[in-house]
Design goal:
With about 280 residues, the protein is mainly α. It is built from 14 helices and five strands. The protein has helices at about 5-20, 25-45, 60-75, 85-100, 105-115, 120-125, 135-155, 165-175, 180, 185-195, 215-220, 225, 240-250, 260-280; strands spanning about 50, 55-60, 200, 205, 230. The strands form two sheets. It has a three-stranded antiparallel beta sheet. Strands 1-2 form a two-stranded antiparallel ribbon. It is extended, with a radius of gyration of 25 Å. It starts with a helix and ends with a helix.
């Protein structure tokens, strides 16, 4: 994986070439444009390769990745029934997605995601044949432990949470039967068994349905934290909403958004302030 310093160098080179473009002769502009395009394509990639005796940087090829995986398994004495390759991770991802969402994800949805030509191909991807069942059990156990830890924190009176589902958890704190309060772990286990938890990127979603996935929050940034009955936000999302607030302030500086746009931005900013105040206990 390429270093942060080299990524900074790539962006610096892009600026250098961009400044050079306007003063360069026409014969060189095509070459400069091509170089800038390649640098842009590589600037934010996760895996990049550097070349020996050269400053050239390019995307790591599948062939090289497979070679790295092979060397890794040999170095750590990992024995597999088949030669390891990157495509294995694609199939494992599909199996985990299906099995850890109680099979609520439609095969047709995965087919579109993987760009498969048929449902049969996708179905073969999601089968458990040859998969490490011990790995599945381990991941499932870790998921349960994480879920219990999150719910324990939400039930703590000292924890600041916001959102309509956050209000529900606050009421749980006062309404838990004495018999469960005497055994907090059992209370957490009981709530966890009937509560679905997933992150949408801008809130915790407690809906057991698979038809939303936080899409409302894509177009209405504070929707999940204010309007959705299944939304809950905790301290983990403070940086996210601080960033949203800063974006709204910058948008207000624009002079071409009209009064309607300006009013929408102000409303969003006020809602974000309310969320942050709840999370910070202000």
């Amino acid at each position: 994986m390429i270093s942060r310093e080299r990524r900074v160098a790539i962006k610096s080179r892009i600026r250098e070439l961009t400044n050079k473009y306007s003063s360069s002769p026409a014969s060189q502009k095509k070459e400069i444009t091509s170089a800038i395009s390649k640098l842009y394509n590589n600037a934010n990639r996760i895996f990049l390769s550097t070349h020996r005796n050269s400053l050239k940087i390019s995307s790591t090829t599948i062939r090289n990745m497979n070679l790295l995986l092979k060397n890794f398994t040999q170095k750590h004495s990992i024995t597999l029934s088949n030669s390891i390759h990157t495509h294995m991770f694609r199939r494992t991802y599909a199996v985990l997605i299906v099995n850890f969402n109680s099979h609520s994800i439609l095969t047709s949805t995965l087919r579109d995601h993987f760009k498969h030509s048929s449902i049969l191909m996708t179905s073969s991807y999601t089968s458990l044949n040859g998969l490490d069942h011990e790995l599945l059990k381990f991941i499932e156990k870790e998921e349960v432990n994480f879920k219990h830890a999150v719910i324990s924190e939400w039930l703590d009176p000292k924890t600041k949470i916001s959102g309509k589902s956050g209000d529900s958890f606050k009421s749980y704190r006062d309404k838990l039967p004495p018999i469960l309060l005497s055994n907090f772990k059992e209370a957490v286990k009981l709530i966890a068994s009937t509560t679905s938890i997933r992150s949408t990127g801008h809130a915790w979603c407690l809906s057991g349905k698979s038809d939303c996935s936080g899409q409302g929050g894509i177009y209405d940034l504070s929707h999940c934290a204010t309007d959705c009955s299944y939304g809950l936000v905790d301290k983990n999302y403070i940086p996210h909403y601080e960033s949203i607030y800063e974006q709204q302030i910058k948008l207000l500086e624009l002079d071409d958004i009209g009064e309607g746009g300006r009013s929408k931005i102000k409303q969003e900013a006020l809602r974000v302030i309310k969320i942050l105040n709840n999370l910070k206990g202000l």
